[in-house]
Amino acid sequence: MTDCFKVTIENNVAHIVLNRPEAFNAMPRPFWNELPEIVNDINDNAKARVIVISSTGKHFTAGMDISVFTDGDGVSASGGDQYSRAEAFRQFVLKLQDSFSCLDNVRVPVIAAIQGGCIGAGVDMTSACDIRYATEDAFFQIAEINIGMTADVGTFPRLCKLIPEGWVRELAYAGRRLPATKAKEIGLVNDVFPTHDSMMTHVMQLAAEIASKAPVAVAGSKRMINYARDHSIADGLDYIATWQAGMFSPPHMMEAFAAKAQKRDAKFPDLAPLRKKM
After folding, report:
1. What sign does the CA torsion over 17, 19, 23, 27 have?
2. Does the structure show a pLDDT above 80 at 15?
3. Domain 5-211: homologous superfamily in CATH
């Protein structure tokens, strides 16, 4: 348990739960340090094969807490002239972005389960996840425009890859809510559920299914999908050929075939922990 999250790991599935329902799971300053610490620990130490992110209370998240702007060295950073302050603020924004980029960069799939409002930085966070599900009462809102600022923590670079650009522009310029049913229609979420419980049942079943697959193959699939998203078809084809030259695993494939023939669960080795120091 941390200030902002409850974390459990069972059967190779890590479940990260936003745990400030009394504050609509707004993201205070500790949130931005805790999330990457949790995710990177799972990744670096190979603690799970899938990560699920869900929330508590009425809303998934109300977005960035105002304290991030008013406390410490955020918007109110002092010292130097306007140009040095602008450069320092740029570094501040890049650090915030890194707090969500860890979800994109982690070796395992990340599934988001969203209820109620997913507002502001919540859109930044969930757009960095691999798969999104929502309840019928869920909605997404790029709310930054309503307080006179441009969304800057990852919404636009990622959302433009997930849904048609016209929808991104409408949401960004007008600050309107995108209901869950429309989010499913345009491809932002995979499915919509009547209740939080039914959504979580589905999400955890999917997580368990993914966790049963060969971890190296799953990690390779995530890497290839992300690379294809950011590069040309020709570059993607070249990279997957290079990846397979080094990562293709006949033992894992033979175990998959043997398990199917013997009608048993396959047993695959976990990903190796990452070396933290040289």
Report:
1. negative
2. yes
3. 2-enoyl-CoA Hydratase; Chain A, domain 1 (3.90.226.10)
